[in-house]
Amino acid sequence: MRIDSVTAVVTGAAQGLGRCFALELARAGARVMAGDIQADGLATLADEARGLPGRVETAPLDVTQEASIRGFLAATVQRFGVPNLLVNNAGILRDGLLALREDDGFVRKMPSAQWKSVIDTNLTGAYVMAREVVTLMLENGVAPGLVVNISSITGAGNPGQGNYAAAKAGLDAATRTWALELARHGIRVGGIAPGLIDTPMAAGLAAAARADMIADVPLGRMGRPEEIWAALRFIVECDFFTGRVVLVDGGASY
Ligand code: NAD
């Protein structure tokens, strides 16, 4: 797909990777509906996007609430028509071990709410978004279409991130499955699994944990959001790409 033919929906676009994707898509001529739970970030995004060749419009979106998703997509269709690209980017971290025995013998365990919040946002939110956007594409004969799921190298497993890893591994399985289901309709589905990238999410990690993670990156640094945009741009423009998750991690996975 040519990027200037794209009408995109980007979730979690108020900051970090999603904000970068929205701005870069608009810089390349796309029309973008940017959604997030953070109203302030959306307001500054709309300001920052003024004057770009494409357009960025914003609307509130909570991917854990189906009514919010429906309202957001109705606003998208009203503003731009049916989107032909969905970037499922919204995600949260709520790290913790499954169970930990403290020195005094007390065993602390991951509360169900902590598990569920990550699955609800990172996996179920992406599923409902994909289902609703793909339904709009199919109902309106939109093809080619594309869904890109933002995963993580942590989907392969990482101590302290059982909830996040399970969500991302599930998302990778869904990416492959939806690609097989939708190819005959001209809809591609791909993923990107970033390593450690310099965003507010990474800034929220404990300094020691971040330093350990950087030490494991052969390129010796965090990635920049623009380097993940380069992968998204490739997936958008390469019409023979579907069903796979691209790793962009400075060599951290093997
Ligand atoms: P971030 O925390 O900086 O930004 C995430 C955005 O998602 C925020 O603006 C937040 O408000 C929004 N969001 C959270 N819950 C939401 C909800 N229910 N509905 C709508 N929006 C919601 O994170 P980031 O680093 O930009 O991460 C973006 C994506 O990339 C996430 O899926 C994350 O898991 C993934 N990722 C990030 C890294 C990294 O190192 N930064 C690495 C691998 C994968």
From TrEMBL:
GO molecular function, one term: oxidoreductase activity, acting on the CH-OH group of donors, NAD or NADP as acceptor
Keyword line: Oxidoreductase
A Gene Ontology BP annotation from the UniProt entry: fatty acid elongation
Superkingdom of this protein's organism: Bacteria
Positions of the Ketoreductase domain: 6-195
Keyword Oxidoreductase: yes
Pfam families, sorted: adh_short_C2
Family per record: Belongs to the short-chain dehydrogenases/reductases (SDR) family.
Name this protein carries in UniProt: 3-ketoacyl-ACP reductase
Species whose genome carries this gene: Skermanella aerolata
